[in-house]
Please model this.
Amino acid sequence: MELKDKIDLNNLPQHVAIIMDGNGRWAKQQGKPRVFGHKNGVQSVREVTEAGAEMGIKYMTLYAFSTENWNRPKYEVTALMTLLVSTIRKEIATLNKNSIQLKTIGNIEMLPKAAQNELLEAIESTKNNSRMTLILALSYSSKSEIIDAVKTITKNAVNGKIKIQDINEESLTNALYTREFPDPELMIRTSGEKRISNFLLWQLAYSELYFTPVFWPDFRKNHFYEAILNYQNRERRFGMTSEQIDRTKS
Ligand code: IPE
Ligand code: IPE
Ligand code: MG
Model:
């Protein structure tokens, strides 16, 4: 039986978030420059996107560039931005063919104009697709996102649009960049690092975290299926006891 066939399609996460990590180390292992790793990571993006859409995952968020990544050497940042533009351009047709809608979260205005334009075009061109929403986190920082949300809420409070005593989880959720998307049930990080790196801090509050040593450019559909199967073997208790969970199941 193939790995894929073991997946219970009635118990899929609606939203999977991925920290695509390890491109640099993957390249270094082969004596190649870091950028070679980034280029090879594109195939992994294709594979997980396709695997997710085929299986029936509704939302997939890929951490492609963090606010902190701006501090990398200039040539690496430039190479990543160039790769972003060329990849989006190349993939629009496939996204449309597979009915995948593209969205972004993060401080998109920080990106070079060419990348912004390419993204806007892709978002517009895929906006009516309904099979899966692919969300690229670009120039993204979860702490900045939360600060922006606090600013929005504070402004509404000062203007009398919301009462302070009415501020709750929902108001904050609705002020985040991710307001249109449900929280990820599963977060995958490749490359063996076990940290969140300023990614979706609020949204991951109750997500299952899956860490794999596989470097991102080596990540294939089967690795994705393994992560989904691992998720399906977990018991999500949300603070309750195992017995309570069993009772709600029966
Ligand atoms: C992830 O791979 C890609 C980005 C952060 C843009 P890295 O470039 O972080 O690769 P490592 O972690 O240095 O191996
Ligand atoms: C996180 O990876 C950001 C992305 C994958 C885009 P990093 O490689 O930048 O994270 P740290 O610095 O190791 O925590
Ligand atoms: Mg890294």
Summary: The first strand starts at residue 15 and ends at 19. The chain has one domain: 11-141+181-249. The radius of gyration is 19 Å. The chain has a mean pLDDT of 97.
